[in-house]
Specification:
7-stranded mixed beta sheet; 6-stranded parallel beta sheet; alpha/beta; Quinone Oxidoreductase, Chain A, domain 1; Rossmann fold
Amino acid sequence: MAKHQMKAQVIEAFNSPYVIKDVPKPEIEDENEVLLKLHAAGYCHTDGMMCSGQCKPDPPKFPHINSHEIAGEIVALHSKPSKYAQEYNIGERVISTGRPFHPCGKCFECLDTTRPGYDDGYSIVCPHCSFNGMSKDGGFAEYVVVDARQVARIPNNVKATDAAPLSCAGITIYGALKKAALQPGQRVAIIGAGGGLGHLGLRFADAMGYRTIGVDAADGPLDLARSLGTKADIVDARTTKVEELKTRLGQEDGKSVREEMGVDAAVILVENQKGFDFGFDLVKNHGPCVVVSYAEAGFRISSRDLVYRDIRVVGTILGSIKMLQEMMDLVAKNDIRPVTTVLPFEKLNELVEEYNKGKGGKFVVEMALQCQ
C-alpha cells in the first residue's frame, strides 16, 4: 500500500455490504483539526439507517466511510494549531463525537451561553458543522481527521473498545439524564433500559445517585438490564401495568395522592407509542419526559396531561463537549463500561449481522484485533 493510502471499510451504494478498500489517507487542512490513528470504532443505529438510505442527503457521495463512534490516538496536529487543538498532545488517546466538525463559531447556537454545560465559542448542534461518518468520512478506517472541538480524553483505565461507544450512546443518555435535572435520591424511569443507550443509562443513574426504574418489553433486553448488577428496579412492561407500578412506588414513598406517585422524570429511548405512554404516564405531576428517540410517525401526547398535570416533554441531542469529558471522568471513577460485542476491523459485516440479531449492548470493531 502506498505511503499516503490507508485501509477503510466503505459502502459503495445503499443496501450493500461494507467493502475494504485502499483510499487516500486524510490530511490536516485546518488549524482546529487533529489526525487520529484509529483504535476502535462503533457501529450505531444511525449507521444502519444511513446504509439503507434513510439519512439523505447524507452521505454526500460514494464510496463513503461510516462511524461516528471513534476512539483513537492523536498522531498529528496542524503546524499552527488553534487554541482548542493546543489543549491536546500527540500520543494522547481521545474519543470523538459525530459533531461538531468545523462549527462556525458565529451562529446563535455557537454563541448561546444559556444552556447548561455550554462550550466556549462553539456548539455541538451548530447548523453549519459537518458530522463524522455522515456528511464527511468517519471512523471505519485506519485514520480519520477530526476537530479538536469534538474530542475528549480517554482515561488511562478505559479501553478504546469501551470508550468508542461512549462518544455517541454514552453522551446521548448522559445528556438526557442531565436534562432531567434531578437531585440524588430522586427517581427516574428509563424506557428501553436494555438497549445500547438504556443499559448505560442504568449505570450512569447509579453513579449519579438516582433511584431508577428500568423498563423494557423483550426478553433479551430485560435479561441484559438485569445482568448489570445495578440498583435499578427492572420492570417488564408486558406484565406490569403503569397504574400498578405507580401504586407500588407511591406505597414505597408513603404517598396517598395519585399525582404524587411515580417517578420524578422519564427518559424515552423507544420508538413505539406504548413505550412512550408507559413513561409519560409514570411521571409525577410537574415532571419532565425527556425524549431521545425519534419515531418516524411521531408520538401522540395527551394535551389533558400536559395542561392538568403540567408534564413537560423535552427533546435532547447528545450533550456538550464539556459534558463529554465530565462523563468520561465519571466512567473512570465508577468503572462504568458498556456491554460490547467486539470483532476485528476486517469483520465489520459480521458485526452488522450480530447487531441485526437485536441482542442488545454496543457493537465495536477493534483495529488491533486480527482475524482468525
